[in-house]
Amino acid sequence: MNTKWSKAPFAVLIMLSFVITFATANEGLAQQGDKAAPAAAVAKPKQATKGVMFNRLMKRTKSNLPPDQDGIHDPENEGTYMLQPPKEAFQGMPRAITGNRVDWVKMMTDGLISPRADRLDPNAEQEIFEFDVIREVRGSMPDVMFPHDKHTAWLACENCHDDIFIPQVGANQLSMALILTGQKCGVCHGKVAFPVTECRKCHSVKKDTMTKKGAVNK
Ligand code: HEC
Ligand code: HEC
Ligand code: HEC
Questions:
Q1: Strand, coil or helix: what is 117?
Q2: From the CA of 14, how far away is ligand 3's center (Å)?
Q3: C-alpha distances in angstroms, 88 versus 50, 101, 183?
Q4: Closest ligand relative to 136 C-alpha
Q5: What is the CA radius of gyration of the chain?
Q6: pTM: predicted TM-score of the whole model, two decimal places
Q7: Whose CA is nearest to atom 5 of ligand 2?
Q8: Does the pLDDT of residue 166 top 70, yes or no?
Q9: For 35-74, how does the pLDDT look when each residue is reduced to its tens digit (9 = 90+)?
């Protein structure tokens, strides 16, 4: 009993010294962090031009750079130089004015490509859903038409339902603010599908021409 208590002050001292060294170490780190912050802030915009990133400021970006310059492939890896450069691969494909300059929807509707429904099974069939959703837009911009068929030709339902969109017309809050911060339609548009600068592709319905409020069935 006695021995236990006599050791206690030492234990407390040791613990205290831990707390003190910890606190000062943390302070040092915080200071370092503060000093490092401007450097990190400068480095960020550089990264934003690399790879598949959301282009929130809708800046014009160089597209279809050869693989060793695209910021996605490793220029140190000799395999990178065996890849066909996009400009060569995309020759003769229907043109688009943004993104990678190819109109991928036209590629599909013209039958130039037929994406596989399953990576491993070449016979798996894609479930195409023919249902357009029209969303009334506040202000003077034309209304938005979301075509299920063009999406489900590439994408299984689970890509959107229920994580990005509740499958119920009008149940989701949508706005440009959300899209421009990479949410809702912006999860894909501006990253892997045509960019947000192509207003008319989404805002394609003249106001007050809806056959039925909220949605039209094809
Ligand atoms: C690219 C995203 C996306 C994909 C893929 C997708 N949907 Fe949807 N779906 C939507 C959006 C957006 C809405 C409209 C939501 C709103 O208006 O708030 C919607 C609405 C619906 C609705 C509601 C219809 C109604 O009358 O209320 C159903 C049902 C639905 N989807 C089924 C499907 C099925 C089945 C598939 C796959 C074959 C599918 N969706 C694939 C985005 C998608
Ligand atoms: C899961 C990814 C994904 C989401 C989320 C998504 N899209 Fe798409 N969308 C695509 C892809 C992929 C294509 C076809 C490739 C392309 O056109 O770039 C496409 C094509 C389209 C097209 C067809 C354009 C044409 O040329 O006919 C329209 C319109 C469109 N999207 C609108 C929307 C709207 C509006 C929303 C939100 C309600 C939305 N999309 C959400 C991936 C997505
Ligand atoms: C990928 C599809 C898509 C593209 C591209 C797009 N929009 Fe939108 N826009 C939407 C959707 C979806 C809404 C929300 C509609 C609703 O309220 O249901 C919207 C809403 C709006 C609104 C109403 C205010 C708000 O935020 O709800 C304005 C204004 C607007 N868009 C302007 C533009 C302009 C200008 C461009 C081109 C620079 C553009 N949009 C490109 C899908 C798109």
A1: coil
A2: 62
A3: 21, 13, 33
A4: 3
A5: 27
A6: 0.79
A7: 185
A8: yes
A9: 444 444 444 444 444 445 666 666 666 788 999 998 889 9
Contact between 3 and 9 under an 8 Å Cβ cutoff? The reply is no
Cβ(90) – ligand 2 distance below 6 Å:
no
CA separation for the pair 196, 144 (Å, rounded): 13
Residue 134: beta bridge partners?
Answer: 145
CA 156 vs CA 139, 188, 215: distances in Å: 33, 14, 21
Q: Which residue has the tokens 């040791």?
A: 14
- Give the whole-angstrom CA distance, residue 148 versus residue 130: 6
Q: Where are the alpha helices (DSSP H) in 49-158?
A: 86-89, 104-109, 148-152
Q: How far is CA 214 from CA 56, 136, 151, 162, 171, in A?
A: 28, 7, 19, 19, 11
One-letter amino acid at 83 equals: L
Which pLDDT score is estimated for 88? 94
pLDDT at 144 over 80: yes
* 23-37, 152-166, 187-201, range with the lowest pLDDT: 23-37
For 27, the token pair is 């302070």
Of all protein residues, the one whose alpha carbon is nearest to atom 19 of ligand 1 is 167
Residue 171: closest CA among 130, 133, 217: 133
Backbone φ and ψ of 39, nearest 5°: -65, -40
The DSSP 8-state label assigned to residue 32 in this structure reads H
pLDDT at residue 164 tops 50 = yes
Average pLDDT of every residue of the chain: 78
Regarding the beta carbon of 144 and ligand 2, being less than 6 Å apart is answered yes
- CA dist., res. 42 & res. 18, Å (int): 36
HEC-encoded secondary structure of 22-39:
HHHHHHHHHHHHHHHHHH
